[in-house]
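[Backbone geometry]
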Amino acid sequence: MVEDLRKFATLVKKYRKQKGMTKEELCQDESELTVRQLTRIESGLSRPTLTKINFLAERLDMNLFSLMPDYTELPKEYLDLKYQLLRNTTYSDKRKIYEEEKRFEIIYENYYEDLPEEEQLIVDILTTISDVNESELIELGNHLLEDYLDQLKKKNTYTLNDLLLIKLLLIIMIHDDDIYCNPGWKLLPKIVQRLLVDDGELLIYQQFVLRDTLFLALGLFFRLGDYKKVREILDR
């Protein structure tokens, strides 16, 4: 696997330079891939997802299979565990919290190190959401959001990772005593407006996350007294 990453890293860097493209030019507005992420890929430090490989192939004007390393499907048990984490909510129920902790334990022990970076991010966000919900310590989530908030601002469509980051942001805002000083405050209207757009492309497990995120947004706008937005969210 390490050797595959090195080969892929070499190919990406080689073809980018052949095209005379800087990292910034390849990444464009960084909405799909940041310069930082590209640097990690070209250094062989990050295993790219198929989505990122597709983006790189398109930007480099290459056949996907000329660029793609020996891509392997994610293990079924990991996918089942992830699905349960995305689908279920603990509601502070001790039994459900214990079951959630066991799922995280299995993922970290058996799968985490070999997951693509974007899958690792999903696990990291889900873990952080759980920690913030149980402890109400927003500092636990702020450090994760710092790296991705700027990228989120540029998005017009949301991936599963984006939805989870938004969910974490809203949870932090709910627990924040000074919501108007929260860096996500100015982003809130744009984010929620995008969430309200009917998107038939979402997979079923993404719809679970969208549903939970809209419930969080509903609570925030109710707290803020914006009942027009509350009605829009309820209709959605």
In short: Residues 76-235 form one domain. The mean pLDDT is 86. The two ends are 44 Å apart (CA to CA). The CA atoms of residues 1 and 183 lie 39 Å apart.
